[in-house]
Amino acid sequence: xxxxxxxxxxxxxxxxxxxxxxxxxxxxxxxxxxxxxxxxxxxxxxxxxxxxxxxxxxxxxxxxxxxxxxxxxxxxxxxxxxxxxxxxxxxxxxxxxxxxxxxxxxxxxxxxxxxxxxxxxxxxxxxxxxxxxxxxxxxxxxxxxxxxxxxxxxxxxxxxxxxxxxxxxxxxxxxxxxxxxxxxxxxxxxxxxxxxxxxxxxxxxxxxxxxxxxxxxxxxxxxxxxxxxxxxxxxxxxxxxxxxxxxxxxxxxxxxxxxxxxxxxxxxxxxxxxxxxxxxxxxxxxxxxxxxxxxxxxxxxxxxxxxxxxxxxxxxxxxxxxxxxxxxxxxxxxxxxxxxxxxxxxxxxxxxxxxxxxxxxxxxxxxxxxxxxxxxxxxxxxxxxxxxxxxxxxxxxxxxxxxxxxxxxxxxxxxxxxxxxxxxxxxxxxxxxx
Amino acid sequence: xxxxxxxxxxxxxxxxxxxxxxxxxxxxxxxxxxxxxxxxxxxxxxxxxxxxxxxxxxxxxxxxxxxxxxxxxxxxxxxxxxxxxxxxxxxxxxxxxxxxxxxxxxxxxxxxxxxxxxxxxxxxxxxxxxxxxxxxxxxxxxxxxxxxxxxxxxxxxxxxxxxxxxxxxxxxxxxxxxxxxxxxxxxxxxxxxxxxxxxxxxxxxxxxxxxxxxxxxxxxxxxxxxxxxxxxxxxxxxxxxxxxxxxxxxxxxxxxxxxxxxxxxxxxxxx
Lengths: 434, 271
Prior knowledge:
The structure holds 2 protein chains of 2 kinds.
Chain A: H1 5-22, E1 45-51, H2 57-69, E2 74-80, H3 86-95, E3 102-105, H4 110-115, H5 123-128, H6 133-136, H7 139-142, E4 146-147, E5 150-151, E6 153-166, H8 167-172, H9 184-194, H10 214-221, E7 227-228, E8 233-234, H11 239-253, H12 266-272, E9 278-282, H13 286-293, E10 297-300, E11 311-320, H14 328-343, H15 345-352, E12 355-356, H16 359-362, H17 365-369, H18 373-381, E13 383-384, H19 392-408, H20 414-432
Parallel strand pairs in A: 1-2, 1-3, 11-13
Antiparallel strand pairs in A: 3-11, 4-5, 6-9, 6-10, 6-11, 6-12, 7-8
Helix pairs in contact in A: 2-15, 10-11, 19-20
Chain B: H1 6-29, H2 50-57, H3 62-93, H4 99-108, H5 118-127, H6 134-138, H7 145-156, H8 160-168, H9 173-184, H10 186-202, H11 205-210, H12 219-227, H13 235-267
């Protein structure tokens, strides 16, 4: 039987359209926010949980185990969302009242929602399942995370800033590979010995575009802070801030232990190639550096460049959005789920490499044996966080860090860079939080 | 080849190398390890299939995402071609009150940045309960002001005498469109269809916002969510995933290249 060309194309189009129409409904979880506020087919209360942070195998297996344990009662529907587009995604959902019940993100994005009054106070929820936040969470991650005196967020994992060093390069330079620098003087002395420009080897790579971890750490070590969250006054242009920036600046232009104008990711690329002996960066690099350097990887606390130990913590917090469906039963489910996740912190640590914020887990002997966890635990004790000011991440990147880069590229003096950044950022913060 | 053409050929070869460099770089990086992805040149010193093995041995539903992208792109392209062609025909050749006003309103909508319409569109689909369905991935692209403008320009060039002759022969307006305008504009329609296909296939933001479940993801969203982490990105795996995801687009372009260039030349449209 012959089919005409027109009939064939018409039939093909119709078949494709029919296929699409037939699949017109989602294969997943109903609408874009899951079964909003309702129950699933088996009558379980649906808890929508979005995360722009961890979504590893361990993380998902804990969620799955919770769903098995509470089958027919609660059903946690997990959705991973990209960190870079989190705001647009959540705000769209909020506009249609399809926000998730729980959102996990880094700390400062929670601030605007708290100020708008659309987050649920979290302390009563935690206490309802026996969590004592001031005892069960590290003080550095619980204290100072309030908005108008109320806790809306709870920490789930931490990513401290660490000193990574290459033990093989230390040995080659005649340094003790088990004695990483702990002071500014030692750091500079070691870095100078480790720098060999003829071999294109650097003691340290200070990289513009990558100071969101080092600068707050050093600033705090010199006794300063980025801003006062309650008065919203920008404070990084203090003598402490200048000392912190001067340290980074001097590694390039005074001590010459770091290359000029390092390109994006160069600190990491050179480190894994054995051309960068020391790196100060977040614990997210542990796995990549370990797989590249193996036993030659050393991990230590940041050296005490200033007058005290301090360590900026990357972090993930979670919070609960108020919604019409948030009744007592659902709140109970959310609280149980949070407790379940904390109780399974060891799974998150061992399978996903997440540093838990659950103090009871840190007492676990198994935890102490996990690679680098003891150093991270020490770092968390000295942890500092970004100030809880709305839109801090974007404004600090666009003002502070971009201006700081000008300085680290040798185009602007450190003092001028900080003053300029503070002025523009203060204006922006004032506008944003009117 | 004459000697006169040599400079042109040299320029084109240099241009081609520049254009193909990112794709070759992507391909090379996909055969490197995560830690060494930014080292060395395009050709990996120690090539590995690990990234591809990880993709195909894990439960990443890459094929499903690619099929989703292809399906919605084809359907959106077909709808755009029909709707835009009808709209352009009526605006270019039919006489009715407010024709110019409608045309300018449509064209001026091109100046509205897509991000400005994100929340209204999300609310619209939410109220229709169409979020996380294939409809939400197809309908927003189904009437395209750019396509109307493109075809309008082409249809203006078709002599009115042809329309008059069809009318004398008793042809209805719809019949005139289907018998005269569609056959005359196949190259332009193919261009519009292919451009729409590429636009829908490559779109990231709307599918990200409007879909929820893993099975409903398009390939751009799925790839980004798989390989781009909060603080780190597995660039080697991202490159391997991206290379797999662009294969359908490469094939579409290779097979439709002739129609596309023909369409561009007949509409005077520059990419």
